[in-house]
Amino acid sequence: MGDILDIITSRRTIKRFLPKYVSWENIAKLIDAARHAPSAGNIQNWKFIIVIDQELKENIAKACYEQYEITAAGAFIVVCAEPEKGERYYGSRGEKLYTIQNCAAAVQNMLLEAHALGLGTQWIGAFEEEEVKSLLKIPEEVRPQAIIVVGYPQEIPPKPPKYPLETLIYFNSWRSKMRDPAKYMNDIATILARKANTTIQVAKESAHLVVDKAKEKITARKAK
Ligand SMILES: Cc1cc2nc3c(=O)[nH]c(=O)nc-3n(C[C@H](O)[C@H](O)[C@H](O)COP(=O)(O)O)c2cc1C
User: Fold this and answer.
1) Which of 9, 26, 74, 156 is the most buried if burial means most Cβ atoms within 10 Å?
2) pLDDT tens, position by position, for the chain (224 residues)?
3) CB of residue 108 inside a 6 A radius of ligand 1
4) Half-sphere exposure of 210 (CA within 13 A, CB side)
5) Which fold has domain 14-153?
6) Does the C-beta of 163 come closer than 6 Å to ligand 1?
7) What is the pTM for the complete model shown?
8) Whether the CB of 123 sits within 6 Å of ligand 1
9) Is the beta carbon of 126 within 6 A of some atom in ligand 1?
């Protein structure tokens, strides 16, 4: 099995799409990826509205603060949360936190599956919620959380900067940095690899010294 990290790191937010149709087979695969995401208590309090109608896409784009470029993409998937269900199971935390996390996990699964299928995606969070609800006849108690634009990329933007690993990690407590994480984690493979490298380095330096000494002796002999 390939490393999914390659899929994760090479995925990009696509902002320019080819005016190309996305097959139902592919859309279904994205929803399949979404529904397999983790959710608190497995409550799966999400629904997905697929939009392919051009006029509706244009109205939605307007509600996304006029991000009209998205209308070229084949389909939008509007990820809707059912916070009431979250609240019923887990109170305020379920409603305000788990519901959002559940949907975010479903979205990320879709983005990765789309990328693996050669499709491009754009996660749109900036939209007039009430306007989108009205366009899609979404009931009062349901919240559209994200609009996932799906299509074939016209161009793939360069990778934006991401914070380096070491700037994001603390050990055991907030702001507590570790000078040698491998040693702390008892990561034998890394420690042995380091030792092996040091040994190779020492051996190389010693070999150079021996060769230099031999050269010196030869030069001295020749000079006699
Ligand atoms: C919650 C959320 C909301 C976003 N909203 C928008 C949006 O409204 N329009 C847009 O073009 N991109 C949006 N994005 C995409 C980000 O701009 C993008 O992920 C970020 O620039 C990093 O680029 P990358 O996805 O290629 O790594 C959103 C992403 C997230 C997670």
Assistant:
1) 74
2) 678 999 999 999 999 999 999 999 999 999 999 999 999 999 999 999 999 999 999 999 999 999 999 999 999 999 999 999 999 999 999 999 999 999 999 999 999 999 999 999 999 999 999 999 999 999 999 999 999 999 999 999 999 999 999 899 999 999 999 888 888 888 888 889 999 999 999 999 999 999 999 999 999 988 87
3) no
4) 6
5) NADH Oxidase (3.40.109)
6) no
7) 0.88
8) yes
9) yes
Token output for 133:
């609800």
> Ligand 1 within 6 A of 90 CB?
no
Task: Write down the domain spans for the chain.
Answer: 14-153, 161-224
The residue whose C-alpha atom lies closest to atom 9 belonging to ligand 1 is 124
Phi, psi of 146 (to 5 degrees): -155, 145
Q: Whose CA is nearest to atom 29 of ligand 1?
A: 123
Cα–Cα separations (whole angstroms), residue 24 to 28, 109, 112, 150: 6, 18, 17, 12
